[in-house]
Amino acid sequence: MTTIDTPIKSGLEGIVAAETRLSSVDGLAGELIIAGFPVEELASRATFEETVYLLWHDTLPDSDSLAIFKKAFNEHRTLPSATIQLLRAAATSRVSGMDALRMAASTLSLDAPDDNPLGDIQRDALILIASFPTIVAAYWRLLQGQEPLASRPDLGHAANYLYMLSGEVPSDARVRGLETYLNTVVDHGFNASTFAARVIISTQSDMISAVVGALGALKGPLHGGAPGPALDMVFAAGREAAKAEAYLRQKLERGERLMGFGHRVYKVRDPRAEVLSTAAERLFRAGGDMQLYDLVRSVEQTAVALLAEYKPGRNLQTNVEFYTALLLHGLGLSTNLFTSTFAIGRVGGWTAHAFEQHETGRLIRPQSMYTGVKNRRWERR
Ligand code: ACO
Questions:
Q1: Whose CA is nearest to atom 41 of ligand 1?
Q2: Which of 106, 172, 217, 378 has its CA 20 to 30 A from that of 97?
Q3: Ligand 1 atom with minimal separation from the 261 CA
Q4: What's the CA-to-centroid distance between 314 and ligand 1, angstroms?
């Protein structure tokens, strides 16, 4: 039935579709390089603005360039009034945070009018990164029946996000924890949402369209939607090791997946899990209560052992989402904010990939294998 000889890879696994200087993922060595830096080296040291600059320019900024870059982000934090109106309507319908972010992101074109159908991709990238925390925090507050807060120009990107959620200026420890998270998840090779963004830009569409498409891909539980369920699972598993084992065993017996485990590329522990667990340990130790951290570590050990028992040979290990859940919970974020906060970090990578794709200018257009019938004849019924 087919005219194509190449074997089908329905999940595109193992297919290399582009060169990139942005990040390298080695699934067997458990290694993630972000613009030349091992994730362990970069994540806990850089500010988020420095990491985005690094991805966009392939070099770290000097102090003058960083000040200009930060100022540019600062200038784009305020949302168009139509965006706020839309968020109010979304809060009335109580749509999910990711749906609200996707709808609001589309409206950012209102502030970026342009005769050029491609838009101004540099300016649009700034608007997107700068606006995401404002959108997420405003929507969160509206859902709680509170008014959105204006951003604080004296605060950096991560600190300002925490401030706009709660109205409190966060401690250095919390800011450091969030920046470590945002840097850790900023880019990760050709993951589904990044690929979606690159496909859209490859048609010479605009930056805002590319990021809106990427948000849709990130939302799903097999990609960015896992950390909320991962934390729910830890709490449901309970505080006693024996109870946790019985609970996880039941899930596997029912054929369910354990959220926060397994990865398409990593066949060893995801290196981001290590970075985030170290950041979480630091945060929980500073708070003086290690109970939840210890519980999460023990649930992780039980889950990995059970996955080896139920899915032998699959090498199902802890992925980034498991410790995302712990760290973001430790930062005081509700599970409903987890995937949107992931997007606040990953939009840095999406925009950098869109620039890269834009430069190569090659339309991404794979083929499919037709398995339907041929030579039907039209007969009116
Ligand atoms: N729990 C239980 N079984 C699992 C899990 C899991 N977490 N992950 C994979 N498996 C099993 C599958 O059931 C399948 O078993 P089978 O062959 O006996 O049917 C086998 O392992 C292979 O699974 P696939 O879905 O083919 O593997 P894939 O590479 O597509 O999966 C994925 C990767 C989607 C991340 C998967 O491991 C999963 O669903 N994990 C849980 C959700 C999750 O944590 N998502 C976040 C991923 S990280 C990120 O995107 C940022």
A1: 259
A2: 172
A3: 7
A4: 9
Whether the per-residue pLDDT at 289 is higher than 70: the answer is yes
pLDDT in tens, 40-92: 999 999 999 999 999 999 999 999 999 999 999 999 999 999 999 999 999 99
Q: How far is CA 315 from the centre of its chain?
A: 23
Residues 269 and 154 in one domain: no
Residue 319 in contact with ligand 1 by CB distance below 6 A: yes
Residue-wise pLDDT for 149-176, tens only, equals 999 999 999 999 999 999 999 999 999 9
Q: Give the distance (Å) from ligand 1 centre to CA of residue 195.
A: 19
* Number of Cβ within a 10 Å radius of residue 219: 21
Q: Quote the ligand 1 centre to 172 CA distance (angstroms).
A: 36
Mark which of 289, 313, 330 sits at the end of a domain: 330
Structural domain ending residue among the three candidates 330, 347, 369: 330
pTM of the entire predicted model: 0.92
Q: Residue 6 — left, alpha, or beta (φ > 0 → left; ψ -120 to 50 → alpha)?
A: beta
The DSSP output letter for 336 is G
Please tell me the distance from the alpha carbon of residue 182 to that of residue 245, in angstroms, as a whole number: 32
Q: Which atom of ligand 1 is found nearest the CA of 222?
A: 45
Do 68 and 178 sit in the same domain of this protein?
yes
- Residue 246: which CATH number? 1.10.230.10
